[in-house]
Amino acid sequence: MIDLSTEYLGLKLANPLVPSSSPLTGELTSAKKLEDAGASALVLPSLFEETIEYEQKQLERFVNSQALGHYEAQSYQPVPEDYLSELDSYLERIQLYKTSLDIPVIASLNGISTEGWIDFGKELQQAGADALELNVYYIAADPETEGGEVENRYLQLLTDLRQHVSIPITMKLSSQFSSIANMVLKLEQAGAHGISLFNRFYQPDIDLETLEIKPHLELSSSMESLLRIRWIAMIRGRVDLSIAATGGFHRSDDIIKALLVGADITHLCSVLLQQGPEYIAVLRQELEYWLEEHEYESVEQMKGSISRSCAINPAALEHCNYMHVIKSYEG
Questions:
Q1: What angle do CA 91, 27, 22 make, to 5 degrees?
Q2: 141, 164, 250, 309: which has the fewest C-beta neighbours closer than 10 Å?
Q3: Helix or strand or coil: residue 187?
Q4: Pairwise CA distance, residues 171 & 158, whole Å
Q5: Which helix (H) or strand (E) segment is 268 a member of?
Q6: Angle (CA) 250 6 244, round 5°
Q7: Could you tell me the CATH superfamily of domain 6-327?
Q8: Taking the model in full, what pTM does it have?
Q9: Alpha helices, DSSP H only, in 41-106?
Q10: Rounded-to-10 torsion of CA 156, 161, 163, 169
Q11: Interval 108-120: pLDDT, tens
């Protein structure tokens, strides 16, 4: 019997297949389907900083409009009886999932400022979240912003939360840092328990008729997994952090490669949106079959076996022979 279990953020998981933040993890019905198909944990859809800020401003406008002309209203702030904030809904979802599912539930915060997030983090922990993912979305569009400032935003957010939250925290990183390995080391020193490589920023498109910028969503492909696999291979063994591979993991081959280079888990999103929650069972079966065929007894045995620290030729991970690759192409 092959042992598929793995440890991630201090959590003992039945296997390394963990659905990431998506519409499928946002509804209990589909979350149960994910669990039934073999998901070992799941990440809730992100709680967005801008959503909460907008909601708070709208509520303030409502309160102010109700208070106009009423002196006594200055000490009373009316709120609709049926009002349920985005944060309240999120907390209720965590509590519902914890009573309805048997797998760990990881909350996700999306933002860049520390204002308010400490309190939000505390409440997510109190609601029962098993861990917290920081999904930091920041585009340094200002040419006056230096790279060090961007890094410090991430580190400050993590440091502030780490001082007030005891559950494990993982940081979902962009691949755009000038020194990814050094940034990962700094995150470990700041108190992170894990990292997710890499965040996938969606790129806007242009409508050629209206000449307006429009949102554009394109699901990932397996080719995107190679960047993640390369960097996980170079980082595994250099830091003592849990590592999640995220972005482009569609096939069992992608998942196996990620585990071989040192990932503790692989996140699944696009493939489940395309194939349905039940596809986890297929990936799990194929993973187990590969391990058996290659005479591995467990995921732990294969994990990191060809990372940089274990590879026969570690330079191959760092120096891709560009000319050789180009010449090898056959159109």
A1: 95
A2: 141
A3: helix
A4: 8
A5: strand 265-268
A6: 50
A7: Aldolase class I (3.20.20.70)
A8: 0.87
A9: 49-67, 86-100
A10: -110
A11: 998 766 666 788 8
